């Protein structure tokens, strides 16, 4: 194999009630990585497109290179690869931008080697890259980007990742306001400890949400979309948060929360039509607030990352 190009989808982490343990992938957009085999050992980033010149090219810092290096360290052979990244996702958006890059790089590099790793076995390497990118090795973006659908990270030590059922009619609307919020900054406002009563509320909601997915009970999904751990501290970083939520719920959203660490907001809805109506309501409310926003609506991506092209 000479080169392989892969795509990895955007993701919504936390899904309100599942801080660091729940995420899902969306169809609407993602990142592209092409990996080329080269004679001499070692990794090199040869191009980065559409990042506004902001991403690092050094292999110790670039999320694609860090992920592939973690895989090669485990693989145990001196292999040479050139890496070309094309961003489809805005940086610092809360749509799993760094995760999509790392996952696309791993899927492409794994294929270049002849797929020695099962899909789920790439996850620890993606987590290494996520830690390098934002200081925390959370898996709730990389796991759904890699595996598709809704994913629960039941435990991190050892890693125990479970793909969940996706109701057919569940759709998502994403609102990306025009400013950047880095995950490390958005994590720094969180508390280290939470009151017992908040732990009880959060556990009830995450269990309710997962049950809602399996029972395709949209009302239960809606009731369970509540976050008392991260959202109260992060909402203040996102202008118009509560106003937007009220408007989207009035437009029929099952719930609205912060996508990952923000500033993108996500809403879930029953049916594609409803997700479009919510998108329209979002555009109107942001116009009233006076903030620029990009709005997307999408089915849930159940496939995860995939290989787009192979050159033998
Ligand atoms: N669970 C992570 C956080 C996701 O909320 O910080 C970051 O996208």
From TrEMBL:
Endpoints of the signal sequence: none
Catalytic reaction list: L-homoserine + ATP = O-phospho-L-homoserine + ADP + H(+)
SUPFAM superfamilies hit by this protein: GHMP Kinase, C-terminal domain, Ribosomal protein S5 domain 2-like
Residues annotated as domain GHMP kinase C-terminal: 210-286
Main location: cytoplasm
Residues covered by the GHMP kinase N-terminal domain: 65-149
Subcellular location: Cytoplasm
Highest taxon of source: Bacteria
Residues binding ATP: 90-100
Keyword field: Amino-acid biosynthesis, ATP-binding, Cytoplasm, Kinase, Nucleotide-binding, Threonine biosynthesis, Transferase
One Gene Ontology CC term in the entry: cytoplasm
GO molecular function (one): homoserine kinase activity
InterPro entries noted in UniProt: GHMP_kinase_C_dom, GHMP_kinase_C_sf, GHMP_kinase_N_dom, GHMP_knse_ATP-bd_CS, Homoserine_kinase, Ribosomal_Su5_D2-typ_SF, Ribsml_uS5_D2-typ_fold_subgr
UniProt-listed Enzyme Commission number(s): 2.7.1.39
GO biological process per UniProt: threonine biosynthetic process
Leading EC class: transferase
Keyword 4Fe-4S assigned: no
Pathway participation: Amino-acid biosynthesis; L-threonine biosynthesis; L-threonine from L-aspartate: step 4/5
Family: Belongs to the GHMP kinase family. Homoserine kinase subfamily.
Known function: Catalyzes the ATP-dependent phosphorylation of L-homoserine to L-homoserine phosphate.
UniProt-listed NCBIfam families: PRK01212.1-4, thrB
Name of the protein in its database record: Homoserine kinase
Organism expressing this protein natively: Algoriphagus machipongonensis
């Amino acid at each position: 194999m000479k080169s392989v190009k892969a795509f990895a989808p955007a993701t919504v982490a936390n899904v309100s009630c599942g801080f660091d343990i729940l995420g899902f992938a969306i169809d609407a957009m993602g990142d592209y990585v092409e990996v080329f085999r080269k004679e001499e050992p070692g990794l090199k980033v040869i191009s980065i497109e559409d990042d506004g010149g902001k991403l690092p090219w050094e292999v110790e810092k670039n999320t694609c290179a860090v992920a592939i290096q973690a895989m090669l360290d485990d693989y145990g052979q001196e292999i040479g690869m050139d890496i070309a990244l094309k961003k489809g996702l805005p940086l610092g958006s809360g749509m799993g931008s760094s995760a999509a890059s790392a996952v696309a790089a791993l899927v492409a590099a794994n294929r270049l080697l002849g797929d020695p790793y099962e899909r789920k076995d790439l996850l620890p390497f993606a987590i290494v890259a996520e830690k390098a990118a934002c200081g925390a090795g959370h898996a709730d973006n990389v796991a759904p980007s890699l595996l598709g659908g809704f994913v629960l990270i039941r435990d991190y030590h050892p890693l125990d990742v479970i793909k969940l059922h996706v109701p057919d009619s569940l759709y998502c609307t994403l609102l990306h306001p025009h400013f950047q919020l880095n995950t490390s900054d958005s994590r720094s406002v969180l508390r280290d400890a939470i009151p017992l009563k908040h732990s009880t509320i959060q556990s009830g909601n995450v269990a309710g949400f997962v049950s809602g997915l399996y029972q395709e009970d949209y009302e239960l999904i809606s009731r369970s979309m509540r976050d008392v751990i991260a959202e109260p501290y992060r909402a203040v970083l996102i202008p118009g948060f509560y106003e937007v939520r009220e408007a989207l719920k009035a437009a029929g959203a099952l719930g609205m929360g912060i996508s990952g660490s923000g500033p993108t907001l996500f809403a879930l809805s029953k049916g594609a039509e409803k997700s479009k109506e919510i998108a329209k309501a979002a555009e109107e409310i942001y116009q009233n607030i006076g903030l620029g926003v990009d709005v997307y609506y999408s089915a849930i991506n159940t496939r995860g990352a995939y290989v787009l092209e192979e050159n033998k």
